[in-house]
Each structure stands twice: as C-alpha cells, then as structure tokens.
Amino acid sequence: MTVTGPLLTASGVTVQRGTRVVLKDIDLAIERGEIVTLTGQNGSGKTTLLETIAGLHSLKKGRVKATYTNGNDIIIRDLKGRRTPAPGVSLALQSVGACLDESVIERLRTASSVAGIKIDDEALETEMEKWSVLHRANDRLAILSNGLRKRVSVLSALLPAMFSNHQRLILLDEPGDGMDDESKNILKSSIMMMKDSGHSIVIVTHDTSMVELSDRTVALSNGKITTSIQKSRKPSHVPLLDSYDDNSGIKEFCRWIVAIERRNPVDTIQRLVPALLALFLIRSVGLEDITNQNTYSLAFYLLIPALVSVMARPALIDRLSEERSGDWWRAHLGRSVRPYATILGGPWLLPLPLVYLSFAVISFNATQIDQSAQYWLWLPALALIDIGIAATAIQMLVSGLERSGAVAVSLMMIILIWPFMMTLEATALLLEEGFQYNLGFDTPLGLIILSSLISAGVWLSAVVIPDQ
C-alpha cells in the first residue's frame, strides 16, 4: 500500500522553555522525498523546531505525528505528554551528539545499529574514506577537531538512509558548520542522493548553498513561520516502514553503556573511592570499640561503605550530558532511555564485595555475631543494589529537568532512608540470629523483600515522570 500524504506533521505546536515561548502555533508538514530548509536569525526557533520534530521538547500546545504506510498515525509528541520515537528518524545535532569516549567507527556502527541497519565493513570503510575519516577510524572523538567531529555526526545521520530500503526522515542541524569546501560538496551530493532515494531531509542552515538544494524554504522569526517558499518537485511514493521496532536500538543502547564503562571505568572509580574512604574512617574509630557494640550498630558500620557507593552520582549522567549524547539517544529511543539507563547505570559491581570487605574488617573478634551470618550477607547487598538503582533513577530524573524548582524532586532521595532502615534491621538480625527461611516483618528475608519492593516503587515513580 502506498501513502501519499505528509510523512510527518506538526500541528499548532507551541513550545515554552521557562517563561519564554520559543515556538508559537507552528504548522508544518514534511512531505515524502522532500528537502526542507529552516532559515532565520539566531534565536528564531529553527533548532527548537527541528528538535521538536524529533520529539525532544515537551509541547505547550499542539502535536507532532508521523504516518505509516497503512495510513495509521503515530504520535511523536503532544501536550498530554505522549512520547514515541519518530519512525525511521536519523538526527544530527549541532554538537556531535555522542560521548567523546566513543571511537569514530564505533559511533558510525552505533548509529546504524540503532536504526536497525547492518552495514558490512567494506561498505562502511568506503563511506568513511569518502568523508575523509577512515584514517581516524579508531581514534576517540575526544581527540578529533571540531570539523572532524561534525563530519562524523552528519555521516552517522546519513548512513542509515544510505543502506535502507525504506524511506527515512533525516534531521540535520547546521550540517555544514566547521566543514571545508570539499566536505560541504560531499555533504550536498549525499543529500541529493538521499532525496533521489525517496528520503525526507530537514535542514537547519544559514548557508545559502544548502538552501539552494531544498524543495521548500521555511523562514522563522520570533518562533513563528514567516514565509514558506515552495519549489516545483515530483512527489515521492517510496514507502515508510510498516511498523517501528526499537528493540535493536534498545539492545545497542545497553551494549553502549557497558562498553563505555569497560573502556573507561569512571563510574566504578567514582563509587569505590568514597566507599573505601568511609571504610577507612570506620576503621579509624577502633575495631575494639566497634565490636563491643550491639549487632544493630555493627550492621550500620557494615553497610555504610556500600551505601555510600550506591548513592554516588552515576557517571552515566555525565556521559549522556556530554555533547548532548542523551538527547541523541532520546530522539531515537524515546522514553526507553531513562528506565534502561537507570538499571544498567546502577551500582551492580560494588555492593557485594564492599559488604564482605566491611564484614572482614569490623567483625574481627566480634563474639556476638552468628557464625552462619557471613554466608547470607549477599541478601542485604542485593537490597542495597535495588536502593542504588532507585537513587540512580532519581538523580537521572533531576538531571534532565529544566523547570524552575525542579531540584526539589531530589528530596525523593530522602524516601530511600526507609528501605535502607529495613535492610539495616535485616542485617542486624542476620548477625545476631543467622538466616531464617520464614517470611514476616520480623525476619531478614521478609525485611529484605519489603525493602526491595519499596525501592522498586521509587524507581518506577522516577522513570514514569515525563522528561522536560
């Protein structure tokens, strides 16, 4: 079935950032196989409109929708807070839109995999050679010049369309900035090739040579469309994907989180250092003074280093903030980013070894500890992991909010005292009486389960709150 209507439509879109209305009552339809350039002075709303099409900004009014080949609409974003990734979208932000720990070839493969496109090595190397980035394939983005980063960013948006059998929507924000004349010529020829293949391209630009490529020029001023100049063109009937499957993108996002941490274990170090410092401070109190106290106090000393590690700010927040990497992922995966990021970015590695390390340090000569307790300390360690995932969700929620007073949301962290106190009581019972298989609010297992359920509730509350 062939659909001839607009590929994507923005209807009555109003975007407000703080007290400022950035876009007001915007109506814009992107036709299939069309090149649209967005022009205007700095601050006119061009970039905001492009990013709104990608679903990155909440709407005060209106909606953005796309249309499948079966004629059904999918809501990209609306004023009710609904949020779905634009089907078949490829986005190049003004910044590189990637963590700078990524290598050039890794960024290009990631962008293709997120789009569900598999490109063989030979074809990928051919395109990299064409764009003069092959010789830097294994270099990290951090050491590249701004011009090279821009090339990588734009190429990562174009690659999925180059090797796709279905129509895609390519969004480019100032793609020619920082490029030399040769690179701009390659960019222009690539854009025309995308158009000839039936893909739709929306470009924010000040470059008149880029405007000349377009089928339609839309000028903005003070958040409103002032003119829309249409050139004659032949309509495209290349079909869009019948359905949108983001499983490949989610898998790639999870792989990306793990790969970046393995390459540069900043998160592990940021969590480990304050935890070890806490353990050294506890050790400085004097083991004799600690072991002479009751099991509740012993449990407190036992859990504090692990608690410090799980409450530390996750490095993933900074990685997603770097060069607007998180916005790039959100444009392609929508709401899926936050729940998966909070789970995989949580403190999985340290609580268990820290609990046992603390036990080895503070239990020396402690005669009141049940001999079997050490075999069950993994239970409170797991509860602390759950608390840490909930804490990560809260911190990620706060980091993504721009509303005034949003910092008050961080007060949600206080509620995590509740599951920690339950974990603390369960640990004290383990130390004093050992493990019991029966359930109840006065047994270690029952308290651990209840603690994890509360943490899960906090996590769920943090990930379902709409972003921005």
Summarize the structure.
The protein is an alpha/beta fold. It has 17 helices and 10 strands.
Protein described:
With about 475 residues, the protein is an alpha/beta fold. The protein folds into three domains: about 1-90 and about 170-185 and about 195-235, Rossmann fold (3-Layer(aba) Sandwich), CATH 3.40.50.300; about 100-165, no CATH class; about 245-465, no CATH class. It has 17 helices and ten strands. The strands form two sheets. It has a six-stranded mixed beta sheet with strand order 6-7-8-3-9-10, sandwiched between helices. A four-stranded antiparallel beta sheet has the order 2-1-4-5, covered by helices on one side. A hairpin with a 2-residue loop joins β1 (about 10-15) and β2 (about 20-30). α4 (about 145-160) runs parallel beside α5 and α16 (about 415-435) packs antiparallel against α17. The longest helix is centred in the C-terminal third of the chain and has 22 residues, at about 380-400. The radius of gyration is 26 Å and the shape is elongated. The chain starts with 7 loop residues before the first strand and ends with a helix. Mean pLDDT is about 85; it is low at about 240-245.
